[in-house]
Specification:
With 904 residues, this protein is an alpha+beta fold. Helices cover 37% and strands 13% of the residues. It contains 31 helices and 21 strands. The strands form six sheets. The chain has an eight-stranded antiparallel beta sheet with strand order 7-6-1-4-3-2-5-8. Strands 13-14-15-16-17 form a five-stranded antiparallel beta sheet, sandwiched between helices. Strand 6 and strand 7 form a beta hairpin. Helix 23 (672-695) runs antiparallel to helix 26 (735-757), helix 23 runs antiparallel to helix 31 (842-865) and helix 28 (786-794) packs across helix 29. The chain is elongated and about 95 Å long. Residues 217-904 form the Lipoxygenase domain. Residues 87-213 form the PLAT domain. Keywords: Chloroplast, Dioxygenase, Fatty acid biosynthesis, Fatty acid metabolism, Iron, Lipid biosynthesis, Lipid metabolism, Metal-binding, Oxidoreductase, Oxylipin biosynthesis, Plastid, Transit peptide. Its EC number is 1.13.11.12.
Length: 904
Amino acid sequence: MLKSQLHSLAQPPLLFTSNSSTFATGGPSLLPKRVLPPPATTDLHRKAPSTRRPLVVSNSLLSNITQTITKTDVVKAVVKVQPSIKGLLSSLKLSGRLDDLNDFLGQSIYVELVSAELDTATGTEKKKVTGYLQRDLLVNLNDLKANVMTYEGELKLYKGFGEIGAILVSNQHHREMFIKTVVLNVNGNKVTFTCNSWVHANSDSKEQRVFFADKPGYLPSQTPSGLKNLRTKELEILRGNGTGERKDYERIYDYDVYNDLGNPDNKNLARPVLGGKEHPYPRRCRTGRSHTKSDPLSESRTLNPNNIYVPRDEAFTQLKFINFSLDTVKNVIPAVFPGLKSLLTSKFSSYAEINRLYNDDPTKDTDFVDRILNIVKSINIEPFFFDQPELIRRDKHRWDTDEEFARQTLAGLNPYSIQLVTEFPFTSKLDSNTYGPPESAITKEILEQGMKGAMTVEEALNNKKLFMLDFHDLLLPYVHKVRQLSGTTLYGSRTVFFLTNDGTLSPLAIELTRPASPNESQWKGVFTPSEDENSTDAFLWKLAKIHVAAHDAGVHELISHWLRTHGCVEPYIIATNRQLSALHPVNKLLKRHFRYTTAINALARGSLINAGGIIESNFAPGKYCIELSSVYYDQFWRFDTEALPADLIRRGMAVEDPTAKHGIKLTVEDYPFANDGLLIWSAIEQWVTEYVAHFYPTIEQVVKDNELQSWWTEIKTLGHADKKDEPWWPTLDSPENLTSILTTIIWVTSCHHAAVNFGQYAYGGYFPNRPSIARTKMPTEEGMDAAALEKLKEKPESAFMECYPSPLQAVEVIAVLAVLSHHNVDEQYLGEAGDPGWEMDKEIEGAARRFSERLEEIGAIVDGRNVDVKRKNRTGDGVVPYELLKPKSESGITGMGVPNSISI
């Protein structure tokens, strides 16, 4: 029911019935026979004279124009416009009726054709060809299916106009319109403009929109003479002047710090500004809102957290917006009902109660719309359920094993934290005067006991057999701060693993540390696995794993996911639009990899990472969550190690090896994330190498490309301003370095994000596997009441329930992870949606096709690996196969698929 209503709503309003054929193109016209004046507008260069008349207009009006040129070519123009939901809902307003009148009069879209050539006699731009395009009031079947309206007309090129290089568009409606394409047919030859862009109403701004004809791309020095000035002016518009509050219809890209996450006017919601010397951070898109009363450095927050400015073309498409909204409702509302009783308490009573959150009967009806209708009819309805995450659908108990705990460091949701142990004993690099003795409590004897005599610690180090999750120094400075918050706690932690002969990891020990403070001495506890599942040591080990899982969940969400993909990519998007023209080949290459990211990030600032938002409310660091990501950015983030091979080498998970297939040799042979990731990395690198070589055959062309150099300089000095003086930034001085830079950006926006995002429901949807927060201290911690340990011994399950997230926290996180793990129906996957201009260049079109074909091959390779019984980290009884880097997917929660961009 809901779908059909939305479908009918999205159709263009029909002003006339199918019998109104007199309004179709070519039929008799009821319009007055007069020449329509041009709109009161200015183009990108000058104000149109008020007395200027269009050279021609559409259809029957052409007969009233006296042509003074000796030869003309008729241009048949067809514009496809997608009506917006917002526009249709306002169609009954006065503005909507005026727009209908404009359509009736044929005055809705005014265009100017721009020659690609300058006038050779004067050296100036050639006179533009202008005219109105008229709404086709008869909706044909194809337009109905595509949900578009057609505007069309005829214009005439004068002799010597030359090649059409661009079109200027003025929208005479009182509301914006989404222009999909403009197709000009000149004597059977088509000139296409793939726009896919919002065009503001002329009443909002007189500035005309420019669209360039589909071409493979031009370097600045190769720009056709008639388009050079237009190319420069368009970039100036996109940069803006850095002042004023941005309007919804604008397309201005500028930088700002993260000064809108908190609300200093409310003491409880005050948060530090992220970006600057004290809290280094990448920059976000500037909105220009007024500052708060209490802090002139902080920006006031909008009343509607879902209405934060992003440049207009960065916003969701209609389809994405509708699906995103419905998915949010569909996954959040059902969470309330099965947990309603539990929400009245502070904890779940048992694992059995947790399991009742999930639908374990695939045949059970969980249709959302029907259930909503039932709510209206009766309060005695069957509860809603979450779908079973893949992890427990395959095996309800495997998540609780040490084998699965270790496996997920290599093949789970956060494969970016595991690292090789290269030094022992472990020591902290933090100030011992502040935090206490730096030496770890994990001893040689503890590790060797865990290895059961297989080898000594020295031998394990030499043979690269010891690995670790090291959250010790990152978290330790925040332990006492977090412990001042209610309902949460924190430790610094180290977890050590041993690489067994079958290629799997086995956990050896967990160390949890409470730093020294003015009131407490330092405390360190080391916990190890126990063969007796009912022993106190086994219960303590499980509690320690809950803490480590919560640490890993926080580092994953705040750093591996949010910071290293969403946050660090936004500066690339801003710089690309400010410095690289739409004509630039690098802009054309990167554009699809930036789709939706700025809009998603704005939504995150509105309700996810903001003060009191979903992350702070549900993850262990509480109000310090995003500040913690700033610490990581300051200490560890560097552009050059975001490349997959460099990241693996940095963590000791690989070493350089020129004889190896990808130039590196993995330390753990069966490392699913790295195994599959290197295949796609190599495919991206090959594609980008061919692309760059085509447009930049020489070093000189890279060095002298002023747009490209400004782009890279701005990324370093403005987008990542707090890192601008770092020596590790690559130098953009060769095609090889450009290839490396672009490959890294594409990897992060596609594969890195996919690997840490689309498995969130599969692994985190069953929250005991990855609790977002650990709420209670270890009962053996110094200063704890002895009753806590006795309770663990007598009622271990109850102790676990107290440590897990509360029911309210659990269902909120599950619902959000379901939304974040969902592929939208209009998703564009890696290797898809190439620039239309590439079809005109056989070399680029061929390279793009080979890239797409290689990704298909990689998908088949991934399938084969997931049935290879020798690969124990991705196959076996109850094991979730590793498909997060399988390139393609259907829509929905699939646990696979690599979109082009950070689209969710």
